[in-house]
Design brief:
two-stranded antiparallel ribbon; alpha+beta; 199 residues; two-stranded antiparallel sheet; 8 helices
């Protein structure tokens, strides 16, 4: 009788279950020695994907758009860039042309430019005689764009033109301003900025 009682266990509902129905601890399954570390393997093809990525990058597509075109997530595209140097290099090559073109356009916009144009005028033929259309060749000038200038200088000469300047004390430490007068603080900061060529 004691043996039967030992074989039975109480379930959550207060009923007893026979020993044959109780769950027994199972040993953990052994991992296969050459199994993939996890996740679905990517479908990277070194003969196709670098060429496609370079072509789409040359047309001005960004990484997210290229990933969509390839039918993968952006994180997979970033993984391919890390694992496959030829893929990363093809993307870089593809982006160089459009980046150079945009850089040249930004420079042109920042410095101003002149271009050939044409004005179309309706010229009267006299009293009640009607009019005719004349095309007149002209040159138009676009002045430098302040926003393009600021953007260019912030990126090309950040030490002089960025919006935020850090001023540090000796050895790159904090400035000791607590015991200084307002005029001494202003003079010290002006001196630090002058050393960087900023007035």
């Amino acid at each position: 009788m004691a043996r039967k009682a030992a074989e039975k266990r109480t379930t959550k509902a207060g009923r007893t279950a026979p020993a044959s129905k109780r769950s027994k601890a199972k040993p953990a399954p052994k991992a296969a020695p050459n199994k993939h570390p996890g996740g679905r393997p990517t479908d990277y093809n070194p003969d196709i994907h670098p060429r496609l990525a370079e072509a789409w990058a040359t047309s001005g597509k960004i990484d997210k758009q290229i990933a969509e075109k390839l039918g993968v997530s952006e994180s997979t595209l970033n993984l391919w860039k890390k694992k496959h140097p030829e893929f990363s290099e093809s993307l870089k090559r593809g982006k160089e042309g459009p980046d150079d073109l945009v850089e040249a356009s930004l420079f042109t916009r920042a410095t101003g430019y002149t271009f050939d144009s044409e004005k179309i005028l309706a010229v009267s033929d006299g009293q009640g005689m009607g009019s005719h259309v004349e095309r007149i060749k002209t040159k138009e000038h676009c002045p430098p764009d302040v926003t393009a200038i600021i953007y260019w200088l912030n990126n090309r000469r950040p030490a002089r033109w960025r919006n935020r300047h850090e001023v540090t004390g000796p050895g790159g430490g904090p400035l000791e301003l607590a015991n200084m007068t307002r005029e001494e603080r202003r003079a010290l900061i002006a001196e630090k900025l002058a050393k960087r060529g900023i007035e």
